[in-house]
Design a protein that fits this description.
Blueprint lengths: L2 H5 L2 H17 L2 E2 L6 H12 L3 E6 L14 E5 L1 H19 L2 H13 L2
Antiparallel strand pairs: 1-3, 2-3
Helix pairs in contact: 2-3, 2-4
Length: 113
């Protein structure tokens, strides 16, 4: 685990992964109604940590002109991308060994013997 990933709070991890998903799915356009006060407080901390390159408000003139309720844009640093990937992979590994997945894998293994 990287130094950054090891020191992030649970809320910061959740926020970083939400912002990563907005970058991947929507080009970094963020809906602030999906964020809470703690998230907004953590944005400067993640920026100081070198993970967020920019978090900007959408100009007022453009608010309400998108299909989604876009209010901000976000960009990651290379380190932000690296940490987000690491955290996403760790989350996937935890999900892969969940009870549901273990039950499915055991059934398939038994059925193919």
């Amino acid at each position: 685990m990287s130094d950054h990933a090891a020191t992030l709070t649970r809320n910061q991890v959740s926020l970083l992964l939400y912002l990563e998903s907005t970058l991947v799915e929507y080009g970094g356009t963020v809906e602030s109604n999906r964020m809470n006060k703690d998230d907004f407080d953590d944005v400067p901390r993640l920026t100081e940590a070198g993970l967020i390159a920019g978090f900007k408000r959408v100009p007022a003139k453009l608010l309400g002109t998108f299909a989604r309720h876009v209010t901000h844009t976000v960009d990651f640093t290379e380190e932000g991308w690296r940490v987000a990937h690491q955290l996403r992979r760790e989350r996937a590994e935890r999900a892969r060994v969940s009870n549901s997945r273990a039950k499915i894998d055991a059934y398939i293994a038994e059925a193919t013997q």
